[in-house]
Amino acid sequence: MREATGGSVARWMEVYLEHLQARKLAANSLRAYRLDLDSVGGALAEVTGARVGELAMAAVTASQLRSAFARHAAARSASSVTRAWSTWNGFFGFLVVEGAVGGNPMQVVPKPRSAPSTPKPLQGEDTPERLLRLVAEGGRRARNPWPERDLAVLAVLLCTGVRSAELLDLTVASLAGRPGDRRLHVHGKGGKNRSIPIEGALDEVVGAYLSSRRVRFGERLPGAEPLFVDHRGEPLRRGGLQYLVRQSLRAAGISDRVQRGAMVHALRHTFATRLAEDGANAAEIAKLLGHASINSSQTYIDVTAREQRLSVRANRTHRVLGELAPREG
């Protein structure tokens, strides 16, 4: 890649995206990287008065970047700006290694303070089970009902904690191993792969779905085929997945148990929260969820401990005890 040294901003963007492509990132992740690079690159062109294809990478200054990010941030949420900042920070880190720039100027470009994220599982003790029972019984009305597929999708989300993009990337071959020792091989965020145990009941649910799929479409299922498809036999897409989950929640009468800002991700949070409630440690949760940092997994444990304490405190016996406890002095 040394031949690109001294090249334009646009050229180095393409080199960086090629580098990310070689890391086998998910398609959604690559699109997000390109969007962030292009958006801030466009703002940089406005600030400098030069087209991105003509602006030399080595000539970009910290002052110009600060102005570009200010323009970029004007009409965007704090989380979007933070994501773009991380993209450009990684971009400049790559450029330093490649010798295209002498240092990383992003350290003097301000970014929004992110409020600590908290898990948003489905609310209500019996909510996941209620959802699964409703779908299994064919309670979700659809033009082309397929309860076996719907149940398998929701069960995989709730019992493995995979992200929506990871679920859509699964192939038939992702489900590997013998009955009783089945595992789901997941191509995760940041190109990191992980393997999740599949228990017998989930294995049977997915098996029933695949059998119904063969009956519907009369086809063999090579390993490279997508694991989940729509009613036409096409790969299930993000919009279709969101619609499936939303309609299933509505049919089960539990739409109000999904916290604001969560939908498909609420099922992943439910999986992680229940792991924490059942005593899993942060390292175990991180491994199953594919977290890059153990701190993300620790959040589930901290929240669970706090909720348990609040539940104990709400016990009526504690209130009576408070009335009876002797007062000092």
Automatic annotation (TrEMBL):
GO terms for molecular function: DNA binding. The keyword DNA-binding applies. Residues 117-313 form the Tyr recombinase domain. This is Integrase/recombinase XerD. It comes from Saccharopolyspora gloriosae. InterPro entries: CB, DNA_brk_join_enz, Integrase-like_cat_sf, Integrase_catalytic, Integrase_recombinase_N, Integrase_SAM-like_N, Tyrosine_recombinase_XerCD. Pfam families: Phage_int_SAM_1, Phage_integrase. GO terms for biological process: DNA integration; DNA recombination.
